């Protein structure tokens, strides 16, 4: 599954941007300088930055001529942000200068939040040669985050000649703040690894093991919801599922299957609307099945997402 709204759509137009030529020249100069120095020393390149409105032009726009800048819009009250942030920080160190991470607190930087048209958080954008690219919204499995980062790095190099500023071995890890180990980190790590390898059954069981000991673990809840969704759509023929739903609007099972595909494809409102419509038109076991699936999809998106809030209101109206 691609993380919600995860897309590099629009990047094919970057070659036409006038900034490309200048960006390539600056990138070549940065690479030459890095080569002469044998790689940037540990303190020379900060891979994780706290950015505000005052520092945005220098830390993001100007820096994006040398290295792709990934922007993480977050807030302290946002639980999915707390899941996603450490993953992005660790990957910034692992990618060793092929991108840098700029963290923007939306509560303190409302203007940046509005300028980027962010609708919900966490939201992740990239800036390459001064051009903003939407990447994805919401927390997501690490494997899919890596796919988007790899694609970003490839686009930056192919379209702009930007390959980042290499750092010396070990420098990346030094830039990422250490996080105290939690009691379920090992189990969550095993679940994430299973998910990354496509072992959906193993991931589901691992997340359930965490929740059996800690029912309120937000990361495990999100991971389990995503793994179960992937498991349900695995092997589906999308064309047949959508045709069945279109041909039989009253077939609740067909509508539920189509809603799963809607969500996997990033069509969040379509998935929610489809199930709410089923709930309005049905009763008894059919209505309950649609309601349960809708609540499961809410878990995938996260309770803080405004689309979930709106859908919960619509659900209440449909039920009562």
From TrEMBL:
<feature type="domain" description="Thioredoxin">
    <location>
        <begin position="36"/>
        <end position="154"/>
    </location>
</feature>
<dbReference type="GO" id="GO:0045454">
    <property type="term" value="P:cell redox homeostasis"/>
</dbReference>
<dbReference type="InterPro" id="IPR017937">
    <property type="entry name" value="Thioredoxin_CS"/>
</dbReference>
<dbReference type="InterPro" id="IPR036249">
    <property type="entry name" value="Thioredoxin-like_sf"/>
</dbReference>
<dbReference type="Pfam" id="PF00085">
    <property type="entry name" value="Thioredoxin"/>
</dbReference>
<dbReference type="Pfam" id="PF14559">
    <property type="entry name" value="TPR_19"/>
</dbReference>
<dbReference type="InterPro" id="IPR011990">
    <property type="entry name" value="TPR-like_helical_dom_sf"/>
</dbReference>
<protein>
    <submittedName>
        <fullName>Tetratricopeptide repeat protein</fullName>
    </submittedName>
</protein>
<dbReference type="Pfam" id="PF14561">
    <property type="entry name" value="TPR_20"/>
</dbReference>
<dbReference type="InterPro" id="IPR013766">
    <property type="entry name" value="Thioredoxin_domain"/>
</dbReference>
<dbReference type="GO" id="GO:0006950">
    <property type="term" value="P:response to stress"/>
</dbReference>
């Amino acid at each position: 599954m691609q993380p919600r709204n995860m897309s590099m759509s629009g990047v094919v137009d970057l070659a036409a941007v006038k900034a490309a030529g200048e960006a390539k020249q600056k990138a070549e100069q940065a690479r030459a300088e890095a080569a002469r120095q044998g790689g940037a020393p540990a303190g020379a390149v900060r891979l994780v930055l706290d950015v505000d409105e005052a520092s945005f032009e220098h830390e993001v726009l100007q820096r994006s001529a040398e290295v792709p800048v990934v922007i993480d819009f977050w807030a302290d009250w946002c639980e999915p942000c707390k899941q996603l942030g450490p993953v992005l920080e660790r990957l910034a160190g692992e990618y060793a200068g092929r991108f840098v991470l700029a963290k923007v607190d939306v509560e303190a930087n409302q203007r940046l939040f509005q300028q980027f048209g962010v609708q919900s958080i966490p939201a992740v954008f990239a800036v390459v040669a001064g051009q903003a690219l939407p990447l994805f919204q919401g927390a997501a499995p690490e494997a899919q985050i890596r796919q988007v980062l790899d694609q970003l790095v490839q686009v930056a190099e192919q379209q702009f000649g930007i390959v980042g500023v290499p750092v010396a071995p070990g420098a990346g890890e030094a830039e990422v703040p250490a996080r105290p180990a939690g009691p379920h980190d090992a189990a969550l790590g095993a679940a994430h690894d299973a998910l990354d390898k496509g072992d959906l059954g193993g991931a589901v069981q691992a997340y359930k093991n965490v929740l059996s000991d800690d029912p309120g673990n937000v990361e495990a809840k999100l991971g389990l919801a995503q793994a179960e969704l992937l498991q349900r759509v695995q092997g589906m023929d999308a064309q047949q599922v959508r045709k069945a739903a279109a041909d039989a609007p009253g077939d609740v099972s067909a509508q539920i299957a189509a809603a799963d595909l809607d969500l996997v494809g990033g069509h969040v409102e379509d998935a929610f609307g489809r199930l709410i419509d089923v709930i309005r038109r049905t009763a008894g076991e059919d209505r309950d099945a649609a309601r349960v699936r809708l609540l499961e999809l809410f878990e995938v998106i996260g309770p803080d997402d405004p689309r979930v809030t709106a859908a919960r209101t619509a659900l209440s109206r449909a039920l009562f």
